[in-house]
Amino acid sequence: MKIGITCYPTYGGSGVVATELGIELAARGHEIHFITYSQPFRLTGREANIRYHEVPVSNYPLFEYPPYDLALATHMAEVAEFHSLDLLHVHYAIPHSVSALLARQMLAARGKHLPFITTLHGTDITLVGLDRSYLPITEFGINESDGVTAISSYLRDRTYQAFNITRDIEVIRNFVNCDFYVRDPELVAKQRPRFAKPDEKLIVHLSNFRPVKRVTDVVEVFARIAPIVPSRLLLIGDGPERSAAEFLAMKYGLTDRIDFLGKQDNVNELLALADLMIMPSEMESFGLAALEAMACRVPAIATRVGGVPELIEHQVNGLLYEVGDIDGMAAGALSLLTDPDGLEAMSAAARKTAQDKFCASRIIPHYEAYYEQVIAASTQT
Ligand code: GMT
Question: From ligand 1's centre to the CA of 289, what distance in Å?
Answer without folding.
Answer: 9
